[in-house]
Amino acid sequence: MPASERTPQVAAGGGPLRLRPYTVNDGRTRPRLDLERTTLVRACRTAAHPPQGAPERSDAFELCRTGTLTITEIAGRMRLPVQAVKVLVADLITEKFLMTIAARQANAKDPAILRRVLAGLEAL
Question: pLDDT tens track of the chain, all 124 residues?
């Protein structure tokens, strides 16, 4: 179930219970792999089932199952800090649930690319 559909837990003060982002990664703040914010990621076709454990693991996997996303896009959709998502994604890559995709070299001044980047930023 995506994070947006889960019923939020309520804290004693009536607001949603917020966990520190590093709790998603068992307290780790550094990824096992060197990943950039712009690293492209998608689900491995050989992964027959979602990863077990924290719900964020399966959420990230499901997002990447529907298409290729950057680390920043995953973080935006999951509403988690980019650094926490880097750790999460690095774990899923190491466990063969996700894989990185080499970015195609493109002309950075191409208006079509700039429009797509702007549309992506506006969507966040």
Answer: 455 444 444 444 544 545 555 566 665 667 778 888 889 999 998 877 888 888 888 899 999 998 889 999 999 998 888 888 999 999 999 999 999 987 665 556 777 777 877 887 787 7
List the CATH number of the domain containing 20. Answer: 1.10.10.10
The residues, any chain, with a CB within 8 Å of residue 39's CB and separated by 6 or more, are 70, 71, 89, 100
Domain containing 54 equals: 3-123
Number of domains, the chain: 1
Question: What are the residues whose beta carbons fall under 8 Å from the beta carbon of 69, sequence distance 6 or more?
Answer: 40, 41, 42, 63, 77
pTM of the predicted protein model: 0.65
Contact (Cβ atoms closer than 8 angstroms) between residue 69 and residue 98: no
